[in-house]
Amino acid sequence: MLGPVYLVPRQEAPLWLRASTFVGGIALGLLIAFGILIAYGVSAGQIVNEFIVFVFLDLNGLAQVVTASTPLVLVGLASAVALKLRFWNIGVEGQMWLGCIAATGVALFDIGPDLVRLPLMFVAAAVAGACWIGIPAFLKLRFRVNEIITSLLLTYVAYQLVQHLLFGAWHDPGSAFPNSQHYDEGTERLARLGWGSTHTGIWIAVGAGVLLWIVMTRARIGFYMDAIGANADAARAAGVPVVLTTALAAAMSGGLAGVAGAGLAAGQEYRMTLFIAGGYTFSGIVIAFIGRFRPIPVVVTAFVVGGVYTAGDTLKVFYQLPGAITTLIEAVILLSLVTVEFFSRYHLTYGVRERA
Amino acid sequence: MTNALEIVGASKAFDGRPALRRASFACGWGEVHALLGENGAGKSTLMNVACGLYAPDEGTIAVDGEPAAITAPADAARLGIGMVHQHYKLVQRFTVAENIVLACRDALGVRRPRDAAGAVAAKAAEVGFEIDPGAVVGALSIAEQQRVEILKVLLLGARILILDEPTSVLTDQESVQALTFMRRLADDGHAVVLITHKLREVIGYSSRVTVMRGGETVLAGAETAGLDAETLARTMVGEEGEAPERHARPLGEVRLRVEDLSVRGAGSIGVDGIDFAVRGGEIYGIAGVGGNGQQELADALTGLRAPARGRIAIDGAELAGRDVPAFRRRGLRAIPADRFRTGLLAELAVYENHGVTGVPAGEYGSPALVRRGAMRAAAAQSIEAYSIHGAAPGTAARLLSGGNAQKLLLARELRGEASVLIAHSPTRGLDVSACRTVHELLQGAADAGTACVLISEDLEEVLALSTTVAVISRGRLVGAFEAGQVSRAEIGRLMLGHA
């Protein structure tokens, strides 16, 4: 008969163990994901073809990956900067919608001179996203209202707002569908890079990653974020301005999400539609977790997840797999990773406890 | 007559630190047996051994004269031993009956709460409680919740009842009721063990008393009738120990002035109208049994909790109601009671912990950027100066031992000019040599002209270090004496609210 099993926390996991559990976790997740795909009737050779050859070794495929990654980098950063402080921003999509609305507003009403129209759209998007997260942040910091609930529910409010505009005032009379009018070419669209559908939004996303990396490692607020993330009570007792820092981090999170929404509209759709922000909250959280809430790993992870998205799209089209397959793969990888990482923090002991 | 519960020669160490040293205890049927001792004397540990929660390193237990092997709580329950802990184990959203079924399903032989309601009501009536089995526990008062816990233990078939400081959370009236009830249980033939540090309760309600100090039994099962408060207090706190060398120093101006300070407590007791002043170079010791308002006082004095009323001034600047940065700008430094909960950032590196108070104060860089290199260098200096063992600037703070973690905390807090230092239980859980280091550092701070407040449950420490010794009881300062002008027994009596 099996004796009792005890979980014993490790004092300090060595670097090789942490590195190998990280890689091993992701590998295990991919393996399970491939198992699921094979169960769906995709052959192993086809998987290698779609996932590795087409996605990462083919220039057209790579261009698709970069395009898909552009918003993913931004939402990953948006989630990471909030989750770092255990501020659960579950409303990234809502903030993306607000960013979209703000950018579209600037574009439709031709606010500002042509030369600065595009930057203005993005500034407006960032401000709008930050304001949208500002509501849950204020409620949490002032009245201790759970931000998970408020930020999530505000997503639906944001979506209603988008519908209200697209079916009403901003509806393009020339279209049968609920879309806004197209953004003007040249002044309101992000320029193509001349490589597939890639556009300058990728520089915004990567630039945001680098900027955030500098903020989090060099700036005083980054140090405060580390302290609050580690132990908010101790940070407060040490004189760290916890409320102000949390508010600023939340604003950064919402702002990045807003920019992501505007980037999708100005870089790919060239107008506001009903399908811009769907599903990004979840991806953002997955990317932030896998990237350990650190900007550079988050950017890298976002590209990998972008690859999964691209491959998933291909699988959907060519193998008639359900659309949820991408989400499923993402989830399987994340779950494998956190499960495996658990064992870099604990080890199992059978039978007698070492010491009571 | 055989003893209901007898423990002989029980020892128990945690991480090499002895909590029990060959402690003994014997309690007869039909008596309320008081188990008296200061915090950390080993009372709860000893009774947790009897309940099967801790396995003793050595020693034997006998129940009703028979040697008993108690290795798990289930063994203790089968032998009729039941304990009501200080923190109740009740599901707040469940009704009384649901909670009882959760714990006593097998003993009652029922699975559904409504089937248990009858048995619960009957048992309650039998022992003289009024309790509604359908009431939601969260809506009951603390005293009523305690009754549910007692009822649970009785329904499990306990004949030996152990209550861990049952009156610490009750009002005076509720305490009288609870203690009267315990007497009645004993009169019915139960053995009742009352863990307490209140002399009143020992003298008023127990028939015999065992006193513990430093993990040892120093008075075993004496008849309460022959004892007075003076003797008990002295037995509990012991004789004068060997005091560390006390620094003689001149006292300066008043640096910390507290007037009419009241703080709302999280539990029942907060701080209730405290006045005192501490001068530069003075160590103002505040002794007291834990839970008498110390945490609330420390929180208020460090800016973590806004007082309900009153004034706190550092060097003449009024600070009550201001936030932590305002207190710290005035030179306030603090050693919190729980070093890893409110003191250190366990997951971060030693240098980050060392620098975290400096950054908001403008050290290590500009308002925009921090210079981590400077933080590392400063931490390396402190590691050297304070001999913090096992630490490099980059080591995670959680890997430090208790003593070294405390040295890191002190190194951080004693950096630069400190006007006031609030040290709350600064040696809790530390070994002898680490204690000595902490004491030296505190005296060193006072030597440098800092006004120190030492809030501690360790009377030894307070008497050894303080220039002024005050006692806190039920949120009030009930006495303040110059060092050497008061006996331990006197302080002991005041701590126990028996003046």
Tell me what you see in this structure.
The complex is a heterodimer of chains A (356) and B (499). Chain A is mainly alpha-helical and 356 residues long. Chain A folds into two domains: 75 residues, no CATH class; 250 residues, ABC transporter involved in vitamin B12 uptake, BtuC, CATH 1.10.3470. In chain A, 71% of the residues lie in helices and 3% in strands. Chain A is built from 13 helices and two strands, in the order E-H-H-H-H-H-H-H-H-H-H-H-H-H-E. Chain A has a two-stranded antiparallel sheet with strand order 1-2. Chain A starts with a strand and ends in a 6-residue tail after the last strand. Chain B is of the alpha/beta class. Chain B has three domains: 235 residues, P-loop containing nucleotide triphosphate hydrolases (Rossmann fold, 3-Layer(aba) Sandwich), CATH 3.40.50.300; 171 residues, 3-Layer(aba) Sandwich (Rossmann fold), CATH 3.40.50.300; 78 residues, no CATH class. Chain B contains 17 helices and 20 strands. The longest helix of chain B is centred in the middle third of the chain and has 16 residues. The two termini of chain B are 37 Å apart. Chains A and B meet through helix 8 and helix 9 of A and helix 10 and helix 11 of B.
Question: Which terms would index this structure?
Answer:
heterodimer, A: 356 residues, mainly alpha, ABC transporter involved in vitamin B12 uptake, BtuC, 2 domains, two-stranded antiparallel ribbon, 13 helices, 3% strand, B: 499 residues, alpha/beta, Rossmann fold, 3 domains, six-stranded mixed sheet, 20 strands
